[in-house]
């Protein structure tokens, strides 16, 4: 279970299972344990009903998306365009394809930058440490995750 209060849940007593764990895998684990112990087990639907009655404070966490805002908007447009005219469907698909091509270019530039920085470190046998600002004529790339850790 994840600690503390979670967004979307007003009740602080709620405990959320990680996104990769739903009631079904817990039921399968229960079935396996019951079988190993030679005990009679209940069916999945009864298990879920009992869970809701006896453990209302333990819930499955919905997966969060790692898509950018534009991808989310484009995907929503694609889903909503199912019953629309072909022109609007085609426009929504084109918009998503254009965005994905732009993202691929950005990713390629990012990979080139990080590869160049790795080469710089290898060439100059650099290591992370303290040195005066602008003391070396080199270029480095810091990722957002790295900056968060500092």
UniProtKB/TrEMBL annotation:
<protein>
    <submittedName>
        <fullName>Uncharacterized protein</fullName>
    </submittedName>
</protein>
């Amino acid at each position: 279970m994840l600690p503390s209060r979670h967004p979307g849940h007003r009740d602080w007593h709620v405990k959320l299972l990680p996104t990769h764990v739903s009631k079904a895998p817990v039921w399968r684990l229960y079935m396996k344990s019951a079988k190993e112990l030679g005990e009679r087990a209940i069916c999945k639907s009864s298990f879920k009903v009992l869970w809701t009655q006896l453990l209302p404070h333990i819930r499955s966490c919905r997966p969060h998306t790692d898509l950018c805002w534009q991808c989310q908007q484009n995907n929503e447009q694609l889903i909503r365009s199912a019953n629309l005219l072909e022109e609007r469907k085609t426009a929504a698909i084109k918009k998503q394809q254009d965005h994905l091509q732009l993202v691929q270019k950005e990713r390629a530039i990012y990979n080139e930058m990080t590869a160049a920085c790795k080469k710089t470190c290898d060439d100059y046998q650099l290591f992370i440490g303290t040195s005066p600002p602008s003391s070396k004529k080199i270029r480095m790339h810091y990722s957002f995750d790295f900056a968060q850790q500092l």
